[in-house]
Amino acid sequence: MKIGIIGTGNIAQYLLESINKNKKVDGKIISIFGRNQKVGPRLETQYGPAFYTDFQEFIQSPVDLVVEAATIDVAVEHMEEVLKNKKDLILSSIGAFKDTNFLKKMKEEAHRHNQHIYLPSGAVGGLDLLQSANALGGLKEVSITTRKSYQSLGLEVKRTEDCMFDGFALEAIDKFPKNVNVALLLSIAGLGAEQTKVRVIADPNIQRNTHTIEASGDFGTMNLTIENEPMPNNPKTSYLAALSILATLQNRGSAITVGS
User: Fold this and answer.
1) Cα–Cα distance between 166 and 161 in angstroms, integer?
2) For residue 111, what pLDDT is reported?
3) Does the active-site annotation cover 113?
4) Does one domain contain both 143 and 203?
5) How far apart, in Å, are the Cα atoms of 58 and each of 7, 49, 135, 201?
6) Is 73 in the same domain as 152?
7) Is a pLDDT exceeding 80 seen at residue 10?
8) 146/233 Cα distance (integer angstroms)
9) pTM above 0.70?
């Protein structure tokens, strides 16, 4: 498997270390696209992939699959081109699908070109349960409460906790585009962004980003709490989010797949 990566940040560097150096996947990252003229050439020298600043040159390189590890804007800009060039896509910036019309269009493009868009589970679990519960319309209610430090939310630090948002995923992604990918992923797996309840709490005492997911329906109830460790080299990035991309790459094409 020949892999291309969009982005040169923490997740891209973690994948390069895990795949090209430590051989954790049966494949190799051969191409990187980015705009950072300082970091890109360093990654090229350190790990061996070709670094491109021109997207057309990147997408026409002999990659089988592209991992987006950049930003929502970059994902929206290049997703369609990836599919048209008959490359599967692993999407890190789930917030690109906050526009339901864009989500629908990309689904149609993927079908048209016989490609797949993979949405890694990221910082949460329970997605298979939500999809199963909703298979025949039996999922009734889904909510997520996210607790993060003021710093990780980009806010001025206070001594007491504060509820920064209480509403639905569709609104939350606009207010916290870098922090509620999790909520949007839950909404795609379950009831949709207009019906998935979201609370975002800034907590000065919290050490790990914490997500509490609650769901109910014909299947029964689910209560799941996850406390995410940050990546060792950057506390702003969830370690589990990076691991989930690696797991998606490892499981692609496996003879036996656990879950969806």
Assistant:
1) 14
2) 96
3) no
4) yes
5) 12, 11, 38, 40
6) no
7) yes
8) 22
9) yes
